[in-house]
């Protein structure tokens, strides 16, 4: 399967910076044998939608409302994202869980509404440092994923999952390839049991993935790509990760 490399710009960017970054990424990824997406702040969806036109670069959002429409000030609906060409929406990022108190149930509803609008939710799961040190990693990620499986039934084969250990996000501390592979294999087994077939769902790794460590992470059998924060803001770094994903294509 083709690997998927998705950039999560988080709350970064400007019209000028986005223009330069997207043009450089599109030029550098020409012919790449992997899927590439950028998940941009909502106000920039229209700009990046125009910039990517005619290229293989896919567009994603960083969140989606769990509601269809109505009196939800500040929220952005799945149908709005769809109108602007979003193919992906990150849901349940640990920064949303932490700073916006998103529960497993809310994340599951967000995945559901994205799927209903033909948007692939990239469902983020991951343990904190305290949870890892307490030996609770598998229990935590399985609980987070189970909520999404429970709410989405057979549609689950249309999602993507990102394992993002909270202690590795933005810290420069990456999970070792073995640590990541271990959790990915647990998630793979859980997805297989839920879908009842062996069709592969992309399971991405996220957390300080960069040009130097991408190849060893992407070489693991159950790591199907990456969700890249800081390194997705620099075209050269992002392109090196894309190149590593093409080489590592499983
Ligand atoms: P960093 O790559 O900056 O650690 O961020 C990872 C992440 O949170 C992607 O969603």
Q: Can you characterise this structure?
A:
By secondary structure, this protein is an alpha/beta fold. It has one domain (4-249): Alpha-Beta Barrel (TIM Barrel), CATH 3.20.20.70. It is 42% helix and 15% strand. The protein contains ten helices and eight strands. Helix 7 (137-152) packs parallel to helix 8 (177-195). The radius of gyration is 17 Å and the shape is globular. The model has no long low-confidence stretch (mean pLDDT 95). Residues 8, 93, 164, 169-170, 206-209, 227-231 line the site of 1,3-dihydroxyacetonephosphate. 1,3-dihydroxyacetonephosphate (13P) binds at residues 8, 93, 164, 169-170, 206-209, 227-231.
Strand order of the largest sheet: 1-2-3-4-5-6-7-8
* CATH superfamily descriptor: Aldolase class I
Low-confidence stretches: none
The assigned CATH architecture is Alpha-Beta Barrel
């Amino acid at each position: 399967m083709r690997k998927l490399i998705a950039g999560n710009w988080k709350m970064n960017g400007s019209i000028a910076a986005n223009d330069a970054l997207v043009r450089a990424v599109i030029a550098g990824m020409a012919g790449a044998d992997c899927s590439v997406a950028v998940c941009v702040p909502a106000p920039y969806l229209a700009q990046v939608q125009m910039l990517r036109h005619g290229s293989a670069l896919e567009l994603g959002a960083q969140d989606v409302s769990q509601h269809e429409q109505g009196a939800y000030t500040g929220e952005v609906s799945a149908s709005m994202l769809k109108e602007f060409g979003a193919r992906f929406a990150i849901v349940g990022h640990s920064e949303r869980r932490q700073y916006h108190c998103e529960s497993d149930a809310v994340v599951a509803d967000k995945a559901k509404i994205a799927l209903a609008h033909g948007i692939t939710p990239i469902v983020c799961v991951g343990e904190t440092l305290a949870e890892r040190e307490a030996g609770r990693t598998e229990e935590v990620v399985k609980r987070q994923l189970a909520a999404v499986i429970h709410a989405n039934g057979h549609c689950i084969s249309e999602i993507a999952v990102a394992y993002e250990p909270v202690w590795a996000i933005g810290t420069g501390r990456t999970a070792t390839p073995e640590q990541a592979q271990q959790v990915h294999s647990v998630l793979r087994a859980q997805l297989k049991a839920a879908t009842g077939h062996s069709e592969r769902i992309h399971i991405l790794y996220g957390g300080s993935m960069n040009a130097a460590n991408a190849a060893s992470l992407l070489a693991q059998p159950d790591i199907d790509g990456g969700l890249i924060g800081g390194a997705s803001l620099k075209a050269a770094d992002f392109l090196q990760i894309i190149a590593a994903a093409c080489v590592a294509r499983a």
